[in-house]
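Lecture 7 notes: from sequence to structure.
We start with the chain below.
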Amino acid sequence: MTNVDISPKEALEQFFGFTTFKGDQELIVQSVLDRKDTFVIMPTGGGKSLCYQLPALMSEGTAIVVSPLIALMKNQVDLLRGFGGENGVAHFLNSSLTRNEAIKVKEDIRAGITKLLYVAPESLTKKENVEFLSDIQISFFAIDEAHCISEWGHDFRPEYRRLRTIFNEIKRVPMIALTATATEKVQEDILKNLDIPGANVFKDSFNRPNLYYEVRPKKDVAREIIRFVKQHSGRSGIIYCLSRKKVEEIAETLVVNGIKALPYHAGMDAAQRASHQDRFLMEDVDVIVATIAFGMGIDKPDVRFVIHHDIPKSLESYYQETGRGGRDGGEGKCITFYSYKDIEKLEKFLQGKPVAEQEIGRQLLADTVSYAETGMCRRKYLLHYFGEQLPGDNCGACDNCNNPKEYFEAKDDLKLMLAAVKESKERHRARFICDLLTGNETSEIKNYKGDKLKAYGSGSEHNEQHWMAVIRQANVGGYLHKDIESYGNLSLTEEGKKFLKKPVSITFTKERERVDEDAPDEDVVLNGKGGGAADERLMKMLKDLRHSVAKKAKLAPYVIFQDPALEEMTVRYPLTLEELTLISGVGSGKAQKYGKPFVELIANYVEENEIERADETVVRSVMKKSSNKVHIIQNIDKRLSLESIAKAKGLTMEALLDEMETIVMSGTKLDINYHLDDVVEEDAQEEIMDYFRTAETDSIEEASKEFDGDYSEEELRLMRLKFMSEVAN
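Predicted structure tokens for the same chain:
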């Protein structure tokens, strides 16, 4: 298959059937063929893989391609085999192969059939593999996803740091490193760690003009996602969530709302993951809901939207994940839901890590917050982060550019801020400068005697968010330099010094208001608090009705329907008992038992007030499920002790009670009398049951106060379970 006598262009047509290269591809291929070390920074969809695949097919020997994911290797190998030639032209060598398969791979390589061998960095550390590779002819080494080398990269992997050492053990041959996202700091790290300072560097523009960027406040997020997906019906999309639990929840919610969706995360077994990925590629499903494990190297060109349910922990992750949209040059909408609470959650995850790692993590998060909260052109901000300047102030394809923004005269504010940076000796980060200007007396301000400086409190008429916006825009505008090595210390650029000497009129954009409110949780649990009623007048009518139904049944109102269920009714206006069962916390039993007067009231209200129910906003909820539901119900039916039920699933008693409450809330009865008779006296049971019959709330705290601490929290929770099972369901 080797043929170095033809030109790269002829080889391109011969092997891949293309007649033209994209961007710098031809120069990169030539650089590798000339046996030069080569470094490629090219956005997702730019055609990175071809830059090493083509020279590998044209060269003597086998190219060793280091790749971080088994799914990615399989995908690439399948594609290469699909272009014709022998099956052995490309192989992967990793832990997923049987012994016989691994032997076959090595035979093909020795026979000179294999032009590309994909390996995981872990496989390279095995002595037998190092010995085998030392004996064969290697054309070059290729390191895909090279940002994994850098601690400042968004997907740092320690085993990538050892690649140079392992390559030296095998043999010194030319190298090509490739990445789709790399800030200048990460680029330096890669070149230094791989010891290729003289490499030919090819850096493509990070601008993806066909992608539209939008950040939305994180409110009613499930409803917003469903509405968006239904507006783009039949199109392929990816929804990213940070946790596996949220992936499962969102996928399930989409399915019950008539959307073809599947989950994908590392907690699933490999066969299931591969099956879900294939069904997405084959278009059996429209939407894949995934953690960030999904999509690296997945070559689906027509992903039309990428939604982030949770904001990623770095702008590099965000860029890479959004970059999976519109790889064919067609439409790609990138919608991100943002709440500052998510950032606080991510900051908590950093606790307990080494100090340097925490500092890097916080700096990356600060840049993400800046992007989410900025009022300036998002594309301009994003490109500046990767060291690229976008001319003009309006890209025409982001929410900030498409919605008219407010501007303000920033001459005095910029001058004040630059003076504060200078006076504090240019050795502090943005947060310190904001505290200095607003006169915020933090421990850092005290430690560095910031309160003794002239700048202290000089900008107190504005809040911290305003000053953060000024710093952000001064940074992008070239007045400030942020030093990554020192985790973000600010200093004045030549432009900044010039401005401070001779300030001139300058306009900045007003920032968007920070949204600190997280979305109301889609789950409803006992004692759950909802997100507030959407229609206060209807809420009052529903509460009055609940009161009269409860009075007639001689029950507490919460037993009929809890407040979060009523609040949801004011958003969705259910008109039939079937629609009522879609409300969180209303099972079919409850709907049959109490629902008729409620749907009648809502139907009259909708008609009288001429309310239009938009179909796409009537979102079916997935009731919070107990992951151990079947196990718990079956074993309670067998009258096993609660302790042994908990032990079998590795649960604490408290966690088991949580799961049982979830089961009862979804309308299933649990008969736990056999357990209660052992742990709570008969007259005490009667006393607590009487309390729950008349109490206005099911709060355990209130119950504990009422009984003056005579009963433990566990006893009260068990009795509440009995009460809800027997009376409410």
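Points to note: The first strand starts at residue 38 and ends at 41. The chain has five domains: 8-203, 211-400, 406-509, 536-617, 629-728.
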